[in-house]
Amino acid sequence: MENNQNPVQSIILELRRGVLAIAVLSQLEEEQYGYSLLKRLSDQGLAIDQGTLYPLMRRLESQGLLRSDWRIMDESRPRRYYLISSQGKSALADLKKEWSNTVATLNHLLSKGKE
Questions:
Q1: Alpha carbons 24 and 53: distance in angstroms, whole number
Q2: How far, in Å, are 12, 26, 31, 61 from residue 65 at the CA level?
Q3: Which candidate, 4, 19, 59, 70, has a CA 20 to 30 Å from the CA of 11?
Q4: Is 84 helix (H, G, I), strand (E, B) or coil?
Q5: 13-37: per-residue pLDDT in tens?
Q6: Residue 71 belongs to what domain range?
Q7: How many structural domains does the chain have?
């Protein structure tokens, strides 16, 4: 049984990795800094490790899907705030459509065996 869990865990990790960009973009309609985004996602049931989130946000920013800037608030240390860009909003709309189509297709495929 243990041998079967490794491939399943690997597939679960790949699946999660594939949806993280959509999740992150969907939560940046309002400005967030890294920790607040981590907490927001976690509070909604999607825990992400910092080592996964920050490289993802840097990649999304380099692709033009996010904007960021450094700020010092209330005499605390600087925080980098992220916000979805107009290009990111367009991409998110496309990703949502693709996600909906994929989920509908998979639901259909998965229910076929139950007929």
A1: 8
A2: 25, 11, 14, 5
A3: 59
A4: strand
A5: 899 888 999 999 999 999 999 999 9
A6: 2-112
A7: 1
β-sheet with 66-71: strand ranges across = 32-33, 79-84, 66-71
24 touches 85 (CB < 8 A):
no
> Which pair of tokens denotes residue 36?
């607040």
> CB neighbours of 56 closer than 8 A, spacing ≥ 6?
20, 21, 24
Phi, psi of 82 (to 5 degrees): -115, 145
Q: Would you state the pLDDT for residue 38?
A: 96
> What token pair was written down for 30?
């309002």
Mean pLDDT of 89-105: 97
CA angle 112, 13, 21 (to 5 degrees): 95
Residue 27 in tokens: 């939560």
